[in-house]
Predict the 3D structure of the following.
Amino acid sequence: MKILDTNAVLRFLLGDNIEQKNVVISELECNNCLITIEVIAETVYVLNKVYSAKRNEIKKYIEQIAYIDENIISKRAIVFYALDIFSKTSLDFIDCLLVGYQKIEGYEIFTFDKKLSSILKQ
């Protein structure tokens, strides 16, 4: 099993370095790759803050990866839940992941963040 890092994921998504994108595609074709929730979080951050991608565009980018192989993204249900919230709110992606952990896996989230608390109570 190979874990793809954020740089590999970004090269695949953005296609800004064709040689590196092709190497990532070759790795993905082996069907033995994993993208962790941490890498997804960093990818969302970089797309948002560095590349100024809109939230709904970021959701589509990550969904694009997920359709390669349904097992490629760890905690897929949580990631997708978080992406949906992220695309519709102004919450940081990490907060959206916390909501996903609560809604999907039943975790209780302790926070002083009022905006996050309001979403958690829905």
Observations:
- The chain has a mean pLDDT of 94.
